[in-house]
Backbone:
């Protein structure tokens, strides 16, 4: 079973680990095994593994690696055995391993350095994988190899497509390289587009589309067929349907990564979008990683989550990470005694114990949710409220005692109520069922290795964005335009979510129903109380912490309002 972020332990070892964890939390003993993995953080599980083997835990090893030492080991072997050497000091070789019960990494190290003493640490697979990534090279396919491909010969389908190994067939190697490069760059999507005289691909990283790379025109159809083949679809399918959706899985340095595939027919051929669902940097845990909200926002979120029935709506533009946050909320709410159903298009993140349903098209929505309600759910996640039917059903579910999580497209949290009204829901209905209106944005984070210190923000900017005058002399950081190798020369690395919550308390719900208060006045009221930060305030907090810069902030938040 999979207890610790990627390592499969057999039943005996799993039992030993659970015994260890139960010393601190006896309730774990009676839980099903898969529950233990969910209940305990990776840190705790690693701690238990280390404890049993009497070796220390080392969570973040990346910055301690001696590169010249690392380069003496074969990336393929390190990937297979999941270990990395860190340092060689006074005859002691420090090694990070994912599975201390496995003796092979130690043997490999002794073969290489027979006179050394090997000292091991337990480290998460994702971290070891990141270190190996820094020295692994996928063989690039030359343009002449691509040009030399005979277009009429069809390659065999590839099962369990390993994108970090080498293939003799140039097209296979080309796709492997394109995909592994995308994962390495932390791209969210790969786009392949056909224009009149060129076919090209590009990556979207942290919300920005990057450089376009050309693919020989004659490979247009062959590449298309190859991608369809990965999903087990015959090439004929592409002429039958205007849009094709699917999924496949690739293996990247021993991590399985899901790829969501969308292809639609265009005038000049096709446009393929592949979304990379790499869960290892998808630290979708409330309060941690990219969802490290401030204390008061987290506290309010927990409060709202504990309300037994009602709707929690997350708003924001496309790509603002709404569903990531809802999935994180769902993880927190996930208890064996609750029946949780989701209705998504498509399913992005599978959670153990939750029944996920995917909508093929919008006509399925109504019959699906009707049959849904008969299967006795406690918590429902509805991908999106887009029309009257879906809004009505969300409200109906909330009135009949269910907890409903959903998303809607509005820029500001207070506009959620008006959006429901626009699609034909009476104000009182939404006012009485809505428990929290939330808005979210993803803000790009500065690369910590190359960011540049500034002594303040120019006066003009301070005025334009209604900022306090202290910002003219507040020390902050800006992006380095040249970047560095750590951020692939982008100056930014990763994104963090900022969240604004407007809780709808019984008192406010009443005022909204009666019409004595408008949704905007409610927003102002929440601001006046000063307990919950707005998007702007949370964004400025990230600037003052040196985590992001003004440019990144004003791309996602309207900074001109108070
Ligand atoms: Zn950098």
Residues:
């Amino acid at each position: 079973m999979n207890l610790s972020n990627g390592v499969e332990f057999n039943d005996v070892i799993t039992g030993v680990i659970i015994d260890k964890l139960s010393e601190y939390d006896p309730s774990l003993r009676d839980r099903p095994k898969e529950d233990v993995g969910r209940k305990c953080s990776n840190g705790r599980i690693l701690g238990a593994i280390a404890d049993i083997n009497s070796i220390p835990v080392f969570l973040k090893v990346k910055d301690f690696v001696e590169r010249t030492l690392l380069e003496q080991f074969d990336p393929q072997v390190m990937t297979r055995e999941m270990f990395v050497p860190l340092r060689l000091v006074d005859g002691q070789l420090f090694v990070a391993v994912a599975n201390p019960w496995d003796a092979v990494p130690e043997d490999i190290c002794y073969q290489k350095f027979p006179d050394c003493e090997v000292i091991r640490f337990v480290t998460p697979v994702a971290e070891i994988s990141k270190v190996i990534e820094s020295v692994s090279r996928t063989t690039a396919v030359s343009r002449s190899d691509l040009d030399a491909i005979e277009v009429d010969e069809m390659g065999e389908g590839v099962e369990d497509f390993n994108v970090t190994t080498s293939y003799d067939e140039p097209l296979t190697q080309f796709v492997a390289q394109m995909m592994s490069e995308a994962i390495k760059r932390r791209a969210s999507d790969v786009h392949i587009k056909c224009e009149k005289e060129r076919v090209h691909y590009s990556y979207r990283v942290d919300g920005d589309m990057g450089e376009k790379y050309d693919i020989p025109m004659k490979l247009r159809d062959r590449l298309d067929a190859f991608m369809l083949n990965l999903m087990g679809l015959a090439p004929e399918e592409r002429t039958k349907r205007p849009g094709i959706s699917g999924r496949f899985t690739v293996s990247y340095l021993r991590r399985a990564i899901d790829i969501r595939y969308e292809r639609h027919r265009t005038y000049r051929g096709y446009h393929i979008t592949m979304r990379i669902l790499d869960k290892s940097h998808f630290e979708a845990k409330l309060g941690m990683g990219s969802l490290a909200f401030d204390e008061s926002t987290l506290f309010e979120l927990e409060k709202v989550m504990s309300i037994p029935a009602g709707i929690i709506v997350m708003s924001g533009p496309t790509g603002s990470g709404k569903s990531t946050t809802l999935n994180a909320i769902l993880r927190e709410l996930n208890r064996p005694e609750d029946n949780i159903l989701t209705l998504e298009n498509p399913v992005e993140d599978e959670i153990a114990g939750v029944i996920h349903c995917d909508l093929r098209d919008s006509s399925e929505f109504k019959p699906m949710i009707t049959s849904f309600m008969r299967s006795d759910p406690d918590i429902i996640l509805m991908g999106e409220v887009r029309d009257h039917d879906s809004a009505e059903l969300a409200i109906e579910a909330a009135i009949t005692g269910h907890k409903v999580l959903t998303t809607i497209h509005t820029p500001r949290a207070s506009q959620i109520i008006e959006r429901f009204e626009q699609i034909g829901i009476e104000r009182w209905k939404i006012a009485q069922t809505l428990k929290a209106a939330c808005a979210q944005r993803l803000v790009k984070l500065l690369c910590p290795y190359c960011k540049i210190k500034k002594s303040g923000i120019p006066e003009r900017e301070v005025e334009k964005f209604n900022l306090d005058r202290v910002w003219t002399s507040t020390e902050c950081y800006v992006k380095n335009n040249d970047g560095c190798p750590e951020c692939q020369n982008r100056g930014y690395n990763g994104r963090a979510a900022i969240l604004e919550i407007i809780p709808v308390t019984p008192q406010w719900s009443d005022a909204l129903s009666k019409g004595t208060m408008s949704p905007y006045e409610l927003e102002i009221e929440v601001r006046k109380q000063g307990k919950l930060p707005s998007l702007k305030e949370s964004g400025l907090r990230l600037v003052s912490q040196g985590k992001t810069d003004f440019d990144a902030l004003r791309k996602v938040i309207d900074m001109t309002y108070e």
Summary: The chain has three domains: 2-135, 143-280, 282-441+499-532.
